[in-house]
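Q: What structure does this chain adopt?
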Amino acid sequence: MGDNVIGLVVKRGSNLAEETASKIVKLLEENGYDIVVDVTVDAPSLQGYKRFDISEWSPDKVIVVGGDGTLLRTFLRLGERSSPVFMTVKAGKRGFLLDVERYEVEERLRDFIEGRYKVYTYTRFTVYLNGEKKGCIFNDAVVIAKHAKMARLQVQIDGEIAMNIDGDGVIIASTAGSTAYSLSAGGPIIDPRLDVLVVNPLNPVQLYLRPIVIPSSSTVMVNVSPQSNEMIISLDGQIIFEVPPGSNIVVSRCESPIRIARFKWWEMYYERLYTRLITYW
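A:
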């Protein structure tokens, strides 16, 4: 397949996302582009198109239509493969990570195919559970106790003990993920021009513990005490694994970052940030 091929990922079960995707397909075909549709897409109007599986292959450009969940699942499925350039179109409830609104999709799509955008690179982080690689996160890894029981954890940063936590657990969030669960749990908003990790203890008994912001090159290890209750780890809120007492979790920089085409990302960025936070209900 050549340079005139663009991939499409669309939120499942969403009439709004399908309607938006149909507009995109029409405009792309009018401009001589071929469309391939990801295997997860269930929109009836897109069933006749060639399929691709982003976990195995993707064209150089991919358009994601949906909300944050759709985007995060797509990134997880990409694994450690080299990232295409993603265009992100909001057609979901929140869509905090997606910068193209539906009313402007035709204008932004012309910008996309004509190269009028800036590519922003986002660091991801590989998560290992007891030495086994579990995935590359874009937003966060959340280690949390099951059944509202107490977790007992030790957090090391680059081999140095940083926290001993008796509480609900810990969130390890990227810059992009700082405005997700970590923010709700009292963590800081990180300016997206910074490349860092946030280590945020969840409801610790030790009241002096507070979130720590560290370089993205750091390695974070979470040791679950043998005396801890059973835990789970959630990757970007999409994939969950059981974490028995005595386990260890390591989070370190992923070799494959994500590349996203941004159009007016810095135009009134903070106003857009707070507007989305205030209007979410």
